[in-house]
Amino acid sequence: MEMNDINMQSDNCDPDRPAHPGVFPNREAGKSDHKPAERSVDFPVSVVLPAGGTGERTGLQTPKQFCSFLGRPLISYTIQAFERVSWIQSIVVVVAKENTDLMTDIIQRFQHRKVRTVTGGSTRHRSICNGVLALGSGWEEEEEEEEGGSTAERPKVVIIHDAVRPFVEEDFLYKIAVAAKEQGAAGAIRPLVSTVIATTSEGYLDHSLERAKYRASEMPQGFTYDVIHQAYQSCSESDFEFGTECLHLALQYCGTNAKLIEGPPTLWKVTYKRDLAAAESIIKEALSRTACVLTGGSAQAVTLADALQKAVGALEMELDVIPDLTGDNARYLLKEWNFIQVSVNRSCLSEVNTMLAALEAANRALLHPLVVILVHLSTSDELSVSGKMAEPAAIMELASAAKLRNILLYGVQLQQSKDTERWERSVSRVAEITSSLIRERSSALVGQLLQA
User: Fold this and answer.
1) At a CB cut-off of 8 Å and minimum separation 6, what does 20 contact?
2) In this structure, are residues 308 and 434 in contact, taking their beta carbons and an 8 Å threshold?
3) Both ends of the chain: CA-CA distance in Å?
4) How confident is the model over 149-171, as a mean pLDDT?
5) Rounded mean pLDDT of 326-346?
6) Rounded to whole angstroms, what are the CA distances from 335 to 180, 272, 320?
7) Secondary structure class of 142 (helix, strand, coil)
């Protein structure tokens, strides 16, 4: 495979990234979220996300749940983590009254479909209670209901999670949901990092706890609807004002002893300003592990896309395969940061131009560069016909214009081969190139034409 450099530019990026415990989002490499989830539940599950905090500990004027990374607020990433789970039917986000319009705008801008906003209370428990009650009252359409419309089924299990914990994984949500249904309540725990001590009123050491016997309570937590609803109906004003632990309410007022499940390191919470930088680093890395492939509806392009999807799976990357970005698929304009346009036996620069215009209209590249890769599949006969291949000069010109909009454009020329072994090697090589270009966008070559 020969590679010809056409034009070369680079972006400035801080090479130092904060350490982090895992990756986001949690989808198996190489699998599109159009495919059925491996895990499913046979009972309705909904989520309550309390998001009414003021973010005092971050020292920022904007509450941390609304701080933006790469053009998307933190809370939107958390919502997306739950929306990716097919068996979760609805999400209630509880926000302060003054942030209702902001939350509504986020839902509309990023096309969140399972979400409803509810006004919170003066404390955490009051806010969660409002979210639980909203689930019990059913989901009414904000717009006029069409004839025969209906409200969502009341959930059997309610998962409560912090809006500022965006890295929750589906496998762990499944464990919490199933345990909650069986036990009435379930919660995540993590080992204590430091020893817990008690102090006297004068500021001296009183005693310490044996760390091995204790665990840190984390989120998510799950409850049957009846348990969490009864707990809030029965709890005291003191609980509403000063309490923080939902599992304790279930035990005290319902006699429900929660099943405790040790969670993964990815459950950490964005609490301090430094955590915002760590979260951004994780999200940037994750965005370099996914891409959206557009086939234009061509059967040959779909076949190539499926082959690429399988090949990049071995590289810990995953692809969504769709025909175009119209209609329902327009949501990928806001979902993905990397796009691959596949063409067969013809130039598709016009389609790429259309995509670039759509990405620019969606303001997708304001803070972080997007990657667009044109993969042109040529038959053996086509190579001998002058003018059929995608012209390097045209790609260079288009790439230079796209660079001004913070979009990195590449071209890959792939020759169809009847030799199965040679074809598989070529596809694997294209997968490697694609993965490398996306992951190394900070020092990428712009307007490069590659021939396989």
Assistant:
1) 278, 281, 282, 285
2) yes
3) 5
4) 85
5) 83
6) 31, 27, 11
7) coil
d(CA 208, CA 186): 27
User: What are 281-297's pLDDT values in tens digits?
Assistant: 777 777 778 899 999 88
Q: C-alpha 21: how far from its chain's center?
A: 16
* Angle in degrees, CA 29, 26, 56, rounded to 5: 150
Instruction: Specify the higher pLDDT residue, 145 or 15.
Output: 145
Q: Which residues of 123-251 form beta strands (DSSP E)?
A: 157-160, 185-191, 197-199, 205-208, 215-224
Sheet with 259-262: strands ordered across: 115-119, 88-95, 45-50, 157-160, 215-224, 185-191, 259-262
Tokens of 345: 């036996």
The rounded distance, in Å, linking the Cα atoms of 193 and 419 is 57
pLDDT of residue 49 exceeding 60, the answer is: yes
List beta partners, residue 318: 290
Of residues 341 and 53, which shows the higher confidence score? 341
pLDDT at 384 over 50: no
What does each C-alpha distance from 191 to 217, 222, 248, 397 come to in angstroms?
9, 19, 19, 55
Cis ω for the linkage preceding 50 (within 30 of 0): no
